[in-house]
């Protein structure tokens, strides 16, 4: 028959003292863990709790990325302007792409195409075909840690080239103004694409 261990009876004063020591140790451990927990808290958890999440310091300190953001925003705003101009030209020329719009503005005879509207649409389509690839290339290029001055030249040339291209398209400037603006704007894109390929080739 196994022997039972004798139970030790603690005096109430000793028990209170022991509980007090354990409570002090627990409080010390929580105080040490709280800063670590605050640092390890994810942005998603902070957002769910209603806290304001600060922008990534590393990204905000990247001068190349901030320059890319500036020029990209200018180009997106330019696309909005072209879309607004297209709508205004439609209303002025009474050339609508949908029958319900034509009925609302005079009748089905205005459900038609117009050369000026189509010119605006082509300018907008050309923007989408070129600016969207630039947004991808520029974002990846910014992560390669290029020279801020060289990167700014890339972004500036593309932005100015696209603005001149749109002006030449809408105002029907004499050729080859539009073609030259288009070609010049492609140079920084090809340069960025080449540098991205060179940097990522070892990982193919």
Shape: elongated
Low-confidence stretches: 33-48
CA radius of gyration is 33 Å
Strand content: under 5%
Give helix and strand order, one letter per element, not per position: HHHHHHHH
Task: Kindly report the average pLDDT value.
Answer: 83
How would you sum up this structure, described in words?
The longest helix is centred in the middle third of the chain and has 31 residues, at 63-93. Helix 4 (63-93) packs antiparallel against helix 6, helix 6 runs parallel beside helix 8 and helix 7 (148-171) packs antiparallel against helix 8. The protein has 204 residues and is mostly helical. The protein has helices at residues 12-40, 43-48, 57-60, 63-93, 99-104, 115-142, 148-171, 177-200. The protein is elongated, with a radius of gyration of 33 Å. 75% of the residues lie in helices and 0% in strands. Mean pLDDT is 83; it is low at 33-48. The termini are far apart. It contains eight helices and no strands.
Keywords, separated by commas or semicolons:
75% helix; elongated; mainly alpha; 204 residues
Topology:
Layout: H1 12-40, H2 43-48, H3 57-60, H4 63-93, H5 99-104, H6 115-142, H7 148-171, H8 177-200
How would you sum up this structure in a few lines?
The protein has about 200 residues and is mainly alpha-helical. It contains 8 helices and no strands.
